[in-house]
Write a structure and sequence with these properties.
2 helices
């Protein structure tokens, strides 16, 4: 007989956590880019994607991580 391991989180929780972490990483990648330096000004540092969209994507990812931890499957 196969014994089930008593883990605090189930398979669905781990899948939700993995997807959430990918969302957070995508948000941080969206925030990255070329920066300004002392010789050249780069106006792209103030683009809407870098200062508005990417932080929202990261926030959604972090909230999803919390939801993935808190999710409890229906018991039979």
């Amino acid at each position: 007989m196969e014994e089930k391991k008593n883990l605090a989180l189930g398979k669905i929780n781990f899948i939700m956590l993995a997807v959430s972490m990918v969302i957070v990483v995508i948000g941080f990648v969206m925030m990255s880019g070329a920066s300004s330096d002392t010789t050249q000004y780069n106006p792209e540092i103030f683009s809407a994607m870098r200062i508005k969209v990417a932080p929202v994507v990261c926030f959604v990812g972090f909230v999803s991580i919390i939801a993935g931890i808190m999710y409890r499957p229906k018991q039979k």
